[in-house]
């Protein structure tokens, strides 16, 4: 069964249509990409799926309709988000950020230790303020926090954009391993750079609409994206 299923999703900001009747499937054990240029509606689609922007349409998690649920209830049901910009508490420590994450998920404080183990750098830096971490370390903290509740589906908005190649590699390896363990992963990104080796399938989003659904890894997805943008030669 598809872990996360989205159908007939619309997001409107006032009179502007940001997401226009899209359908996405995010199967377990695979990394699904949602690629599109800036302003295509990727973040809006991801946030609507998690319930943090208003939308209409159906969102199903393991077959159960969750689109009427609050964001917190969706998270506790296994829908985890690493948002663009990460939304960490920059003036709190790594440990405090994880404790707040545990609290929001109604998990015991000891869950923090497991989250720190996933990325050893977080254990080393547990007393550092989140705001002084590098971009890559902040992203690891955001991913570790999202994984604390053992989600069934993980949504990553701009996971690797702007990060150093070594960190990109580390995050990509983590995402691949999570999918191989059975997690359903959706990565929203403006391009496939850094995600080449991890993407199984994906969608191309242009001006709020899905213009291509592609199986077979990053290559055919990249080609479909280039065609959609009118970049393909020949
Ligand atoms: N809170 C908001 N209020 C009004 N319009 C918004 C809001 N958020 C996004 N938009 C608009 O909705 C459209 C889709 O934006 P969205 O951020 O979802 O796209 P995106 O593909 O994630 O782009 P980016 O990669 O730049 O984040 C854009 O035209 C954007 O200007």
TrEMBL record:
SMART domains (alphabetical): AAA
Matching InterPro entries: AAA+_ATPase, ABC_transporter-like_ATP-bd, ABC_transporter-like_CS, BCAA_Transport_ATP-bd_LivF, P-loop_NTPase
Any GO BP: L-amino acid transport
Gene3D superfamilies: P-loop containing nucleotide triphosphate hydrolases (3.40.50.300)
Keywords on record: Amino-acid transport, ATP-binding, Nucleotide-binding, Transport
Superkingdom of origin organism: Bacteria
Span of the signal peptide: none
Example of a GO MF term: ATP hydrolysis activity
Similarity field: Belongs to the ABC transporter superfamily.
Protein name per the record: Branched-chain amino acid transport ATP-binding protein LivF
